[in-house]
Hints:
This protein is an alpha+beta fold and 155 residues long. The protein is built from five helices and three strands, in the order αβββαααα.
Amino acid sequence: MKVEDLYQEIILDHYRAKHHSGLRDPYEVEVHHVNPSCGDEVTLRVHVDGGTVTDVSYEGQGCSISQASTSVMTDLVIGRPVADGLELHQEFLTLMQSKGALEPDEERLEDAIAFAGVSKFPARVKCALLGWSAFKDAALQASASPADNQQGVSR
Length: 155
Ligand code: ZN
């Protein structure tokens, strides 16, 4: 089996049976991101507890790449510290901007390495990044407000 076929299989598996899909409670932040160039949409909720991403739930529609990538992302970030989840976002972003020149780090990115080939197609990169961008947006908002409260900002 060629590596491209294997990657295609991983993407289709996630598309057919999306992990952690559906919108759940509790959550701190809900965001809605769209990728107009392809028509992909995702509504995504993040639940952060004690600095850890305890849940990411979502409802999306669009192409198989956007849907599968969001599914893979939830597998990677749920259960991790927010900072680590944001680092993974950065690593995936770097991979997607590599135009196929970067060897993906399977230890870190797990199933997300399947999207390495997508980085050669600029029109599809936004599809693969949609769920990740939504996660970053929501995670930053979720970790920003409680931290301010904990620091007891005096007025
Ligand atoms: Zn798409």
